[in-house]
Amino acid sequence: MPHYLISQSELPQEREARRARAGKSSGETYAATLDQLQPGVDTTILSPADEDAEPLSAEALVRFDAVFLTGSPMHVYDDGPPVQRQLAFMTRVFAAGVPSFGSCAGLQIATTAAGGRVRKMPDRMEAGIARRISPTEAGRSHPLLKGRPGSWDAPAIHGDEVWELPPGATLLASNAVTEVQAAEIRFDRGVFWGVQYHPELALREIAVAIADQASDLVEAGLAERESDVAARADEIAALHDDPASRALRWRLGVDGEFAEERLRRREIANFLDHLPYLR
Fold first, then answer.
1. CATH code of the region 3-201+265-277
2. Are 226 and 218 in contact (CB under 8 A)?
3. CB-based burial of residue 241 (10 Å sphere; 0-12 exposed, 13-18 middle, 19+ buried)?
4. Which of 55, 116, 176, 248 could pair covalently with 111 via S-S, beta carbons 3.0-4.6 A apart?
């Protein structure tokens, strides 16, 4: 049975706040998703950004079949000790040659560790649904996006974005809001596949996340009132409970790529299927 390492960059207070809101830390969400995709899989959750985190050696890292990097509130352009510890961890993952996958902040951490740049999104953010993501020419034949149609929507919530991919990276998908929606990064001895959106999240978790950031979404101009955000969160949560509802899909303007869990998780499933070829 494979053994996967899950790296969560939330700090302790952020993990507890997420557990209180959504029932799980970001690492626990990834572990649950991986267990659903590969029942009985062995997972270890690590928090490299924590002050008391013990760095893993290259010898310890190579015992894992893959590393997964979660989303989090971390801003990798804030050059403080937690960010430095998280980037040092990712640098060791690349050096060890262990294949890795990440979403949202995970993509941003891998990008920065490999020499790219991340920034706060100027005068915009993406919240709830990332619309009309489309593969690049390279992405159309890349195994990360196998099975995706010519355009799709995905769960997302982020105010930071990859500004410049590092040397050796390949842009795989974009949309009108964020140029880097999916990418492959090759650095040192490692390969990373990542997305800016959240294939690992249940729709109810996305609903909780946008409801929690209602004031930020109003300030960003995505809603006029916090009650509008609450109404959208309620619709997404209702779709979680009834993903086949034609009425909810119509109101949210989504199809099965967003509504159905199996389709929403394509990128993670594709990474797992392709792992034997990445070592």
1. 3.40.50.880
2. yes
3. exposed
4. 116
CB burial class (10 A; 0-12, 13-18, 19+) of residue 190?
A: buried
Q: Summarize pLDDT for 96-140 with one digit per residue, the tens.
A: 999 999 999 999 999 999 999 999 999 889 999 999 999 999 999
What are φ and ψ of residue 10, in 5° steps? Answer: -60, 145
CB-CB contact of 76 with 162 (8 Å): no
Q: Where are the beta strands (DSSP E) in 83-242?
A: 100-103, 117-120, 126-135, 152-158, 160-164, 169-174, 182-187, 190-195
pLDDT digits over 181-217, tens only? Answer: 999 999 999 999 999 999 999 999 999 999 999 998 9
Q: Is 265 exposed, middle or buried (0-12, 13-18, 19+ CB in 10 A)?
A: middle
Distance between CA atoms of residues 259 and 228, nearest Å: 21
- Are 235 and 248 within 8 A, CB to CB? yes
Q: Under 8 Å CB-to-CB from 73, ≥6 apart: which residues?
A: 10, 14, 105
Stated pTM of the model? 0.97
Distance of CA 32 to the CA centre of its chain: 15
Residue 6 to residue 101: CA distance in whole angstroms: 10
* Total residues belonging to the chain: 279
By three-state DSSP, how is residue 150 classified? coil
Domain with CATH 3.40.50.880 in the chain: 3-201+265-277
